[in-house]
Amino acid sequence: MNPFLVMSLLFGLVFGQTASLCAPSEYTIHVEKRECAYCLAINTTICAGFCMTRDSNGKKLLLKSALSQNVCTYKEMLYQTVLIPGCPHHTIPYYSYPVAVSCKCGKCNTDYSDCVHEKVRANYCTKPQKLCNM
């Protein structure tokens, strides 16, 4: 077998698995308040994708630091604020949300991320919809 082909195959196997597919991804958030007349569909970016993790089957033999499970999380983000239309004067009509600028594979930070995978919540409008492109 050609030595160049063998080296290419080994390189691909070794480094191909360490490469992550974690990157900003387009996402639509639907926001509504009970008091307001409209639902707002917000196009934003979130961090999503694949990160290599370690198999914890040998957890009794490994150090705790070797058992960390990486997730796709924010490296850099900013917050945008939008005005929800059709709100009465006594209601605060603003909604702030994160926008992923860049992402990384790392430990989940509960200060700004939901690290628990809960049941899928409905992400739709029950009121007339307005689109907000930020």
From TrEMBL:
Q: Where is this gene product found?
A: Secreted
Q: Record's GO cellular component, any one?
A: extracellular space
Keyword Transport appears in the UniProt entry: no
Keywords from the UniProt entry: Disulfide bond, Glycoprotein, Hormone, Secreted, Signal
Question: Could you tell me which residue ranges the Glycoprotein hormone subunit beta domain spans?
Answer: 21-125
Q: Name one Pfam family in it.
A: Cys_knot
One biological process term in Gene Ontology: G protein-coupled receptor signaling pathway
Molecular function terms from GO: hormone activity
Q: Does the keyword Disulfide bond apply?
A: yes
- Name the source's superkingdom: Eukaryota
Question: In which broad location class does this protein mainly occur, judging by the first location in its UniProt entry?
Answer: secreted
Q: Which residues constitute the signal peptide according to the record?
A: 1-16
Report the family membership: Belongs to the glycoprotein hormones subunit beta family.
How does it associate, per the subunit comment?
Answer: Heterodimer of a common alpha chain and a unique beta chain which confers biological specificity to thyrotropin, lutropin, follitropin and gonadotropin.
Question: What name does the UniProt record give this protein?
Answer: Thyrotropin subunit beta
Q: Which organism is it from?
A: Indicator maculatus (spotted honeyguide)
The upper taxonomy is: Eukaryota, Metazoa, Chordata, Craniata, Vertebrata
